[in-house]
Specification:
Layout (H helix, E strand, L loop, with lengths): L2 E2 L5 E3 L8 E5 L21 E2 L2 H10 L5 E5 L5 H13 L3 E5 L15 E4 L17 E6 L2 E4 L5 H6 L3
Parallel strand pairs: 3-5, 5-6, 6-7
Antiparallel strand pairs: 1-4, 2-3, 7-8, 8-9
């Protein structure tokens, strides 16, 4: 089972370049980031995220073209099934993983994958010294697009 925190669901423009993403915070995080910004997401909280829930969320947020899983939870098989469901709706599927690497099968189910634990000394994606990476998946192969964030960080003085 995959759970999400309904109160934190939002439409975001920055997390995935050139996409209007519906972002859901996934609980039961199995990450262990030293600088964890949301420790409550390590707990078994929230409500079950099902294909029917995704249908409703997408219908309630007309115009989004990407569904972003902020976290993976602890049930990868269900997560991949939900990603497939997102794609069946004509949206792209994205996941922010806190792990260093994801299993190869992930590249076949997502259009965007972010990897790397958050380390305060390295900064987030928009810091050129970040250890995190965002990949766009093209024909099942990862293309590193992390540098798309860096001009934004410089403009913002980050
Ligand atoms: S991925 Fe890292 S920062 Fe995000 S909730 Fe999990 S431990 Fe915390």
């Amino acid at each position: 089972m995959i759970k999400y925190v309904p109160e934190m669901t939002s439409v975001v423009l920055e997390e995935i370049p050139d996409r209007v993403s519906l972002a859901v915070d996934i609980s039961n995080c199995r990450g262990n980031c030293v600088g964890c910004h949301s420790p409550f997401l390590k707990k078994d909280i929230g409500k079950e995220l099902t294909p029917e829930v995704i249908d409703t969320l997408v219908a309630d947020n007309f115009g989004v073209n990407c569904f972003l899983f902020l976290g993976e939870g602890r049930d990868p098989e269900t997560l991949l099934d939900l990603a497939d469901h997102v794609r069946s709706l004509g949206l792209e599927a994205a996941v922010y993983s806190g792990r260093e690497v994801v299993e190869d099968i992930f590249w076949n189910h997502f259009d965007f994958i972010k990897v790397g634990p958050y380390r305060p000394e390295c900064g987030p994606l928009n810091n050129p010294s970040t250890n995190q990476r965002l990949y766009r998946v093209v024909d099942g192969r990862p293309e590193d697009i992390t540098s798309r964030f860096w001009h934004r960080g410089l403009e913002a003085g980050l």
